[in-house]
Amino acid sequence: AQSVTQPDIHITVSEGASLELRCNYSYGATPYLFWYVQSPGQGLQLLLKYFSGDTLVQGIKGFEAEFKRSQSSFNLRKPSVHWSDAAEYFCAVGFGNEKLTFGTGTRLTIIP
Amino acid sequence: DAGITQSPRYKITETGRQVTLMCHQTWSHSYMFWYRQDLGHGLRLIYYSAAADITDKGEVPDGYVVSRSKTENFPLTLESATRSQTSVYFCASGVRDDTEAFFGQGTRLTVV
Prior knowledge:
heterodimer, A: mainly beta, six-stranded mixed β-sheet, four-stranded antiparallel β-sheet, 0% helix, 55% strand, B: mainly beta, globular
């Protein structure tokens, strides 16, 4: 069965600084890859997705993610974070007969 | 409004009572899902449905019952609520089960 790991439970970043959230997956083939964001008290919103092709994917809210096959990773990045980016971020993978599987999430705190 | 809606948003119930969480989507997506979100566990799939009258167990189905008589509705019933079922429950829908899912706002359930 596929699995997805988000090694960082909690990350604190200064406003205006760059951000990278890590995501690693375990699967025999390249799965479909997703990043979701969850603001407090809200549902999950899709930030971006990767199916195939260009390994650098652009998403909403200025986020991007890079798929690295050799590292089985799909890290989320943002060059300059805003206070409104404080939220929980989930990486997810899915493929074929493997249903969408979520990581345990990374909570992002932004300090002034 | 188009989208996916859950009701109620908040619910407190007593141990042993039956409680039903409602989920309604207007996209006519084939797939619908129920997840529970708990600290340290991320999102775990409870049940899912591929179409009306087709349901299947996810990762943590014990203590839950689902039905799907209409494509747009996917209620989740806790037959005899236990404290361990205190959680935030999310309903989601999608075109497939291995690609992006669209989430409702969640129901925060407390079992006392």
